Amino acid sequence: MKIFYSILALLFFSININAQSYTYGIVHTDNYNFKIVAIPDFDAGTDASDMGFTLTMPAGSADLINANSLLPGRVWSLQEYDAAFLTSQGLGDGSRDVFQFNNPPGQSLISHVNGEHIDLVSFSVTNMPSSGEMTFLDNADPVAIGAMGVLDSFYNSNIDNSTTQDYFGGYEPGYSSVMFSTLSIGEIETENISVIVYPNPTKNSISIKSKNNIAIAKLFDATGKQLMVINKPSTLSLKNLPSGIYILKLITSGTTVIKRIIKQ
């Protein structure tokens, strides 16, 4: 009986270890700039080895550039495979360009807590479209499957001082894609989100109305400099700011809504 319980305990321990993972998320930092974060579901001090993922964009002139590592001493590569190339290989329907990010094997000692955002790499979008979305290419997507693992997402790390293995756990809800239409001026409405910011343009202040509780509002200028952080906002005073365009980031539970504000 002791042997039986010992086997059960070992199996339970193994399942718990294997359940530890990192999800990937896209974060819009300002203007045309973004970053990718890894979000663990456990506390640990780890040795991150290599990692990678692929983003998709609407086919066209938009490009992802300036891949800048946010992990000290590490370098990321960025490779585009446009829709024409993919279809020539029998992959996709010609509607998406894909961009592969890869961080080759190395060493990054990272101590983190459950839910912490670990900054991996930043990049910029040129010729940013006004519609469509940027999203991760899922490993189960036919394009990824047809590429035979070349475009897969992975996160190889040593979390227990023994072996390095893949702890990739999917994509973080609310951070798996960016809708380009939400980066323009106007009201944003999705299934459960309705946010109105008015008046816009404004000379003094703006009011914020939403079906969802807005936890935090962050205001940035056109260079990406953060100007304000307000908890549970209902109004925002801009009267002491110069005329221009500002980026308002409204954070609800699991969702970030972006508004462009014109100060007259």
What key phrases describe this protein's structure?
about 260 residues; mainly beta; Immunoglobulin-like; 2 domains; eight-stranded antiparallel β-sheet; five-stranded mixed β-sheet; 3 helices; 21 strands; about 10% helix; globular
Which H/E pattern describes the elements?
HEEEEEHEEEEHEEEEEEEEEEEE
**CATH class membership of the largest domain:** Mainly Beta
Number of strands: 21
Strand-pairing-aware structural class: mainly beta
What does this structure look like?
By secondary structure, the chain is mostly beta strands. It has two domains: 21-179, Immunoglobulin-like, CATH 2.60.40; 185-263, Sandwich (Immunoglobulin-like), CATH 2.60.40. It contains three helices and 21 strands. It has helices spanning 2-19, 83-88, 142-146, and strands at 22-30, 33-40, 44-58, 63-69, 77-81, 96-103, 108-112, 118-126, 133-136, 154-158, 165-166, 168-171, 177-179, 188-189, 194-198, 205-210, 216-220, 226-231, 235-237, 244-252, 255-263. The strands form four sheets. Strands 3, 5, 6, 7, 9, 10, 11 and 13 form an eight-stranded antiparallel β-sheet that branches. It has a five-stranded mixed β-sheet with strand order 4-8-2-1-12, with no helix packed on it. It starts with a helix and ends with a strand.
Describe, in short, the structure shown.
The protein has helices at residues 2-19, 83-88, 142-146, and strands at residues 22-30, 33-40, 44-58, 63-69, 77-81, 96-103, 108-112, 118-126, 133-136, 154-158, 165-166, 168-171, 177-179, 188-189, 194-198, 205-210, 216-220, 226-231, 235-237, 244-252, 255-263.
